[in-house]
C-alpha cells in the first residue's frame, strides 16, 4: 500500500488533463472540481470498507492528493493510514487480551473490593441517626454548640434579658477556658510520641468558679466536664449521674451529653455498663431529647468497641456498619470492621457460628477472606488457611440454605489455586447462579471432566446478562460485575 501510494503521489492527479500555470499546475478547462470532491468522498467511504482491499490503495492516494497540498501530503498520509487502527475485523468484538494471554485469561477470577461491598450492604439499611458534620475542630464545635443550647434553654425559661446576657457571658468565659485547655492538650499529644516524648509539661485545667443562675443541667454537666479533664473520674461520674436523676423536663439538653461521656469512661473498664449507657442515650434521642452534636451516631462506634472488648464480634460488626450508614467517620468504620474480623479469626476460642448466622457479619467475613486470599503479591500464611477452614465449618454448621455470599470466597480460593477448597464453597452456593456455574465449569476443566464443564458453562451462558436489553441501575451494576467473566 505504501509503495503504490508513493507512486501515485509522484504523478499528477488529473494527468494528462492538467496544464501549466504560474506557481503550479491548474486543471484543464472543463474539468469539474466539485466532481473531484465527490470522487474524494467516495474514496473515503472505500477506506472504511475493509473487505474492498483492492480499492483501498487508490482510494487512499486520491483522498490525500485532492484535499492536501504537496508539502502536507506525507503527514496527511500517515494520519490517514493511522485511521485504519480504528477498523474492526468482521465478527463480534472481544478484548484482545483473551488472545494474547491464552488460557490464563480464561481461567482468571475477577478482583474483589471489600469497601465497595460494604457500601452496597449499608445502602439498603439506613440508620435512623445522623452524624453531625465536623465543620471545625472538635473543641471549637463543642463550645459553639454548648453556647447555642444554653441560649435556647434560657429563652424558653423565665429569665429576663439582662439575666440571660449575664449568664451567657459567664458561661462563655468558662467554656473558653475549657476550649483553650483542650486545644493545648491536643497540641501536646500530637508532639508526644513513644520514640520521642514531649519534653514540655502536660497542660492542666484550673478550677472554674460556678456560674450564678446557670440552669441545673448545664451546671452539673460543666462540673463533671471540669472533673473529667482534671482526671477526677469519680467526681465526674457523680456529677453526671446527678444530672440524669433530674426530672426529664429539666435535663432536655444535657442528658445525651452525660450518657455519652459516662459510656466513654467505661468502654474499656466496664464494657457492659458502657453498652447500657449508649443504648439509653439512643433511646432518649428517640423520645425527643436534644442531640445537637450527633452523639447518638457517635455512640454506635463506641458501643461496637465495647462489644469487641466483650468478644461479641457479630454485634461489633453490625454496629460499625450502622455507624457507617449514619455517616460517622467512614474510614474509621472500615478499618474497625477489618480489625474485628482479624481478631475473630485469630481467636481460637471464639465461636464463629454467630458470625455465620447473621447476614451482615457473614458477608463481611467472607468478603474479607476473599480479599486476603486474592492478594497475589503475598504468600498464603498458615493461619489464613486455618481461618478459611474454620469459616467453612462455621458456614456448614449454620444449616442455612444456599447462600450467594460464599461465591466471592470461592473466587478467592480459585485465584489462589485452592481448587478443592473452591469446590467445597461452591457446594454452599445457589445452583442457579452465574458465578457458581462459571467457577464450577473452570474447576471441571482443570479436573478433565469436560462433560461437567460443558454442562456448567452452558448454564452460565444462559444466566449471563443480556447486553442488548436497555440498561437499568440493577442491570448496569450486574454487567459491570460480570464483565470480567
Helix coverage percent: 55-70%
Extended strand count? 2
Q: N-to-C SSE series? A: HEEHHHHHHHHHHHHHHHHHHHHHHH
| Overall pLDDT | 76
H/I helix tally: 24
Strands ordered across the widest β-sheet: 1-2
Question: What is the makeup of the main sheet?
Answer: 2 strands, antiparallel
Strand content: under 5%
- Envelope shape: extended
Termini separation comes to 39 Å
Give the low-confidence spans. Answer: 1-33, 47-54, 470-485
Radius of gyration: 36 Å
Structural class call reads mainly alpha
Q: Could you walk me through the main structural features you see in this protein, from its secondary elements to its overall organization?
A:
It is a single chain. By secondary structure, this protein is mostly helical. Helices cover 64% and strands 1% of the residues. The chain has a two-stranded antiparallel ribbon. The longest helix has 30 residues, at 161-190. It is extended. The two termini are 39 Å apart.
In short:
The chain has 485 residues and is mainly alpha-helical. 64% of the residues lie in helices and 1% in strands. It has a two-stranded antiparallel sheet with strand order 1-2.
List the SSEs and their pairings.
Blueprint: H1 2-10, E1 19-21, E2 24-26, H2 33-47, H3 53-67, H4 73-82, H5 97-101, H6 103-107, H7 114-123, H8 138-156, H9 161-190, H10 216-229, H11 233-244, H12 255-266, H13 271-287, H14 295-309, H15 313-325, H16 330-346, H17 353-357, H18 359-373, H19 382-397, H20 407-415, H21 419-426, H22 434-447, H23 450-463, H24 473-482
Antiparallel strand pairs: 1-2
Helix pairs in contact: 1-3, 2-3, 3-4, 7-15, 7-18, 8-9, 10-11, 11-12, 12-13, 12-14, 13-14, 14-15, 15-16, 18-19, 18-20, 20-21, 20-22, 21-22, 22-23
